Amino acid sequence: MIRHSPTFALFVVATIGTAVQADTPSRITDHGEYRLPRTNDLALRSKAGRDYRLLISSPEGEPPEAGFPVLYVLDANSCFGTVVEAQRLQVRRGQTTGITPAVIVGIGYPGDGPFDPGRRTYDLTTPGEAGKLPRRPDGSPWPASGGADEFLDFIENEVKPLVESRVQIDRSRQAIFGHSFGGLFVLHAMFNRPEAFHSYIAASPSVWWNDFALQKAEERFAKRCAQSPVRLRLRVTTGELEKNSGPTARLAPTAASTGFGSTEDMAMRLQKLADRGVRVEFHEYPGENHGSVLPVALNHGLRFALTSETRDGPKRE
């Protein structure tokens, strides 16, 4: 008669149990597509008859007495989720990060693609002349341009009132973020309507557009500030690997490009307006190109928009 120890018996039971578990399929429940918590996805047709996708993420809890700060993000299809999750993570450690709860508003276009080249070219640019634009990489003609003022009117007169009807907003703490053409639009808005926002974040702005025509708006802005001080903050960023690449590399030097200089040169000029209420930061991200720089610029732009003003000032990081 063969006798087995209690240890052997337990081993056999455990082995059989493991085999049974291996034959039992995992339980899977499909809840459908993932959605960002506390986020509304709205379809909005502008008064001009253009269709937009508006994404609004609201913080938990009651708003402060003055209301929540708000960050408007352009090209929302490409980056809204990134900035919302970055804000949610950092606001949990607000005493360390300095980031306060805020409303994030993404302005994008119908569909799930990250970009709509035709729509964004029109919305985010001033009028462009064929002879003053670089050849596109695929050789195709440039889409229609020149809708920046119309788009800014849309934000000011249609988007902002809609957001304020849904969430209590602190109008003194409104920021806007844009990358590439979006960065160009951010600068255009600041130069022409500085009262529209309190904080402006221009990541890798397409300052080359229409042979650096932005410089004329910059000059008008400087004269305006000399006559009447403003109160605003600007953060300008670029990627190290953007130098001598992209559209600027395909453009022949002109008097305008030489006069404007680089994006950093522009930021340094604007820093001279510090005594007129313009607070400027510039940062170049090492090892980043025009596309890879976006998530990094978003994260730091979030801090710039949603932390105390005592943390910033005219500087180059």
Question: What's the CATH class, please?
Answer: Alpha Beta
Topology pattern, helix = H, strand = E: HEEEHHEHHEHEHHEHHEHE
Number of separate helices = 11
Instruction: Based on Cα principal axes, name the global outline.
Output: globular
Give the amount of beta strand, in percent: 15-25%
What number of domains?
Answer: 1
Distance between the termini: 83 Å
CATH architecture: 3-Layer(aba) Sandwich
Fold-level CATH name: Rossmann fold
What Rg do the Cα atoms give? 25 Å
The strand count comes to 9
Structural class by secondary-structure content: alpha/beta
Q: Please summarize the sheet with the most strands.
A: 9 strands, mixed
CATH superfamily: Alpha/Beta hydrolase fold, catalytic domain
What is the average of the pLDDT values? 90
Report low-confidence residues grouped into runs of 5 or more: 310-316
- Multimeric organization: single chain
Q: What order do the strands of the largest sheet run in, or round the barrel if closed?
A: 1-2-4-3-5-6-7-8-9
Range of helix content:
25-40%
EC number: 3.1.-.-
GO molecular function: hydrolase activity, acting on ester bonds
Organism: Caulifigura coniformis
Keywords: Hydrolase
Structure report:
- This protein has 317 residues and is an alpha/beta fold.
- It has one domain (39-308): 3-Layer(aba) Sandwich (Rossmann fold).
- It has helices at 6-23, 76-91, 94-97, 117-124, 148-166, 181-192, 209-212, 214-227, 255-260, 263-271, 293-306, and strands at residues 39-45, 51-57, 68-74, 103-108, 169-179, 199-203, 232-239, 278-285, 315-316.
- The protein is globular, with a radius of gyration of 25 Å.
- Its EC number is 3.1.-.-.
- InterPro entries: AB_hydrolase_fold (IPR029058), Esterase-like (IPR000801), Siderophore_Hydrolase_D (IPR052558).
